[in-house]
Design a protein that fits this description.
By secondary structure, the protein is mainly α. Helix content is 85%, strand content 0%. The protein has 20 helices and no strands. Helix 11 (206-219) packs antiparallel against helix 15. Residues 1-25 are annotated as: Disordered.
Length: 450
């Protein structure tokens, strides 16, 4: 029914060669390689073709025998049988032509509007892409389908199960470890350092420091620091008395007698020790009051004095530009990264336990709170709509380009293997229906006497 014996042999050789095709492109490889399932489907197509052909041959034999019987005077019944068989042959041939025209040119003849799939493959791909874009990737369809699903309530009920929360926590931990592994420390350190430097350069720090210092002084928070400093200074003076006196004596003029320098050194040391001791033991010491006033004035200058603020900004730039500060930023990222990776790997870490508890709590709330469900549904709908409206052209072009990249002949073979068996029923039905219609027409004709 599909051509000469040579054509059939060529078809079989082509089908056998399909199993060995090894295209590098994924879509082309899919459409040029026959799997075991495809080969089994193709054998089913061949069996159905033989069944349809056998039925055609059967009605042809019936037609010949009925015509012979009619000419031999067998009676009126022979005419009815011949009419039914003749119409069955016509229906079978018409449907054979229609089915064959989908995949190839019947009998190899260049009949117009045949071999539709191989010749119209690219147009079919474009039409399929447009169909998907209009009927599956429209905003209305996406919102309607997602709203009908009720993602918020379903996700909440799913997350509320401890086993599911454990699974999500494990997947998030694996994703976090993977992301931190892929990231290069040098790149992250450079980004973090640049971000900190840029942020620090863009924002003046003197007024903030001045407000903080002003509040600390007003609350007396600096007094403990002063207590610590004067206590340590007193202890240091007690332990290093000789060094202090030697320093005073060393700074004396060379023409003064040595005993005078020594007496002056002892006197200076005693006065200094007395001053520090009094300052340590007397909360109301004048020096403490002077220090309070100095810090208050300095806090005010940091907020309002132009020169002081400019000096602080210059100092800030110098500090940030030092290599030690950049090394500190780099080491901070390394420490944070190691800490996060360790916490992600440890199932009993505080990080994973908190994430698991948060997921369980979120799931429990989402399962029973309609407002939260609506909020989650809105987020999902918004994200999905953004994707389909922004990338609809790219998604449909993926379908179009993929179909355009398929080989026409092998695509035809693949499609025929998958749907050809069902199409052969059209030929069988055409034979049966044609016979019944032919019998009906012949019967009506006889009845009306035409």
């Amino acid at each position: 029914m599909y051509g000469t014996g040579e054509r059939v042999e060529r078809m079989e050789r082509t089908e056998a060669g399909l199993g060995a095709a090894t295209e590098s492109d994924g879509s082309r490889r899919t459409m040029t390689t026959f799997s075991a399932a495809d080969q089994e489907r193709q054998r089913g197509v061949r069996r159905m073709k033989l069944t349809a052909l056998a039925l055609l041959l059967f009605v042809a034999v019936v037609y010949v025998l009925a015509k012979w019987a009619s000419n031999s005077g067998a009676g009126p019944w022979a005419g009815y049988v011949a009419a039914a068989a003749e119409a069955g042959m016509v229906g079978a041939m018409a449907d054979w032509f229609a089915v064959t025209a989908l995949f190839r040119r019947p009998l190899g003849l260049p009949i117009p509007h045949t071999a539709i799939i191989p010749t119209k493959k690219d147009q079919l791909g474009v039409s399929l892409g447009e169909f998907v874009g209009e009927n599956f990737l429209s905003e209305e369809v996406v919102r309607q389908r997602l709203r009908a699903v009720g993602i918020g309530s379903r996700l909440g009920a799913w997350l509320a199960v401890p086993e599911h929360a454990d699974r999500v926590t494990a997947e998030l931990s694996a994703a976090l470890r993977g992301a931190l592994t892929v990231l290069r420390d040098s790149d992250v350190q450079a980004i973090v350092g640049e971000a900190i430097t840029r942020r620090a350069d863009a924002q003046e720090i003197a007024p903030g420091i001045g407000k903080t210092l002003e509040k600390i002084v007003a609350d007396g928070g600096h007094k403990r620091v002063v207590d610590l400093i004067v206590a340590r200074a007193h202890d240091w003076l007690v332990l290093h008395d000789e060094q202090v006196m030697d320093a005073v004596e060393g700074g004396a003029p060379g023409w003064t007698p040595r005993f005078v320098d020594k007496r002056i050194g002892e006197r200076v040391y005693k006065e200094l020790l007395r001053f520090v001791t009094e300052m340590r033991d007397m909360p109301s010491h004048p020096a403490r009051g002077a220090l309070d006033r100095f810090l208050g004035d300095f806090a005010a200058d940091l907020q309002s004095d132009t020169e002081t603020r400019a000096r602080v900004e210059r100092l800030k730039g110098e500090v940030l530009g030092r290599g030690e500060v950049q090394d500190l930023i780099a080491s901070a990222w390394t420490s944070v990264r190691s800490m996060i990776v360790s916490a992600a790997e440890d199932e009993r870490s505080e990080l994973r336990l908190r994430v698991r508890a948060s997921l369980l709590s979120l799931g429990a709330r989402m399962a029973v709170e309609p407002k939260l469900q609506e909020k989650v549904d809105g987020w999902v709908e918004g994200a999905a709509v953004y994707v389909v409206t922004t990338y609809r052209k790219e998604i449909t072009s993926l379908i179009t380009d993929t179909v355009a990249g398929w080989d026409a002949e092998h695509t035809t073979r693949k499609i025929e293997a998958n749907i050809g068996r069902d199409l052969q029923f059209i030929r069988i039905n055409g034979t049966v229906v044609g016979s019944l219609v032919g019998l009906l027409i012949y019967t009506v004709t006889r009845l009306v006497g035409v």
